[in-house]
Amino acid sequence: MKYLIFLFIIYSNLSIAQELNCKVTVNYEGLPALNRELLTDFANVIETYLNNTQFTGESWDGQKIDCAFNIFFTSASGDNDYAAQVVVVSTRPVYKSIRQSTMLTINDPIWTFRYVKNQPLYFNQSTFDPVTSFLDYYANIIIGSDWDTWEELGGTPYFNRAFNIVNLGANSAYKKGWERSNATYSRWGLCEDLLNDKYRRFREAIFVYYVGVDEYQINKTAALEKIVNVINVLSDMKSKVDINSVLIRTFFDAKYGEIIDLLRGYPDPTIFTKLKKIDPPHSAKYDELMP
């Protein structure tokens, strides 16, 4: 009970964001001149859709979630069929700090769709559309990830919605990128991991981690215990099950820099050894922290 009261005190002045404040950038330099001309309104259309759609189905007055979609067109077929690579980033505010904590940094290599200049975009998560379903999927992942930082497992309803979209996409004419895949990153894999009881402890630890991030300016010692907790949970999980998953890689792609900053000077060097084992791609960065 004391812990719940403490959380209420910490978060009472914060608004739980439920809608998006999104910045969209587009790079289509590799496309033919005609296609570039046909895409002149694309960034604005996508940004307007993401910022004006109420993805939760409810009206919220809280602070919006800051996010960005960086879209790199990779090819065009005819006037209207495209392939793109998209980097999706989202952040949330840190208590008593001007700093933003990165929640997601996802590099999605495959987005195939048909786009006609000036076409209207309609929100309907029960029907697949190669443009809006992609945006709806990531909106739900962003909102769910945000909720997981404020409430234990709070993002589950949005991850379920995202997985429903994945299933629609996998059975569509634009199934590339939506199907089950063994690739380093896949939409299917991310949702499957988020909703798998195998990773429940990890998601619960993420909530505790963000409590620590917010508490850092108030009580650094207590905060570090909560931040280290997620590393210990993953280390324990690794000793029992395979954690080589899309979810774990996605977490560390977004968080390794923040973890390094927060744990710089941490007195127990074994924590960095654990980090190297559970996050091998960034092991060189953790080496820099070891005495």
Task: Describe the structure concisely for a colleague.
The chain is of the alpha+beta class. Helices cover 47% and strands 17% of the residues.
Annotation keywords:
alpha+beta, four-stranded mixed sheet, 4 strands, disordered N terminus, globular, 17% strand
Rg over C-alpha atoms, rounded to the nearest angstrom? 20 Å
Percent helix among the residues?
40-55%
Major sheet description: 4 strands, mixed
Structural class: alpha+beta
Shape: globular
Uncertain runs are 1-17
Task: Please tell me about this protein's structure.
The protein is an alpha+beta fold and 291 residues long. It folds into two domains: 23-54 and 66-195, no CATH class; 198-287. It has helices at residues 2-11, 33-38, 42-52, 132-150, 156-170, 187-194, 200-215, 220-238, 246-263, 270-278, 283-287; strands spanning 20-27, 65-77, 81-93, 100-114. The chain has a four-stranded mixed β-sheet with strand order 1-2-3-4. Strand 3 (81-93) and strand 4 form a beta hairpin. Helix 8 crosses helix 10 (270-278). The chain is globular. Residues 1-17 have low confidence and may be disordered.
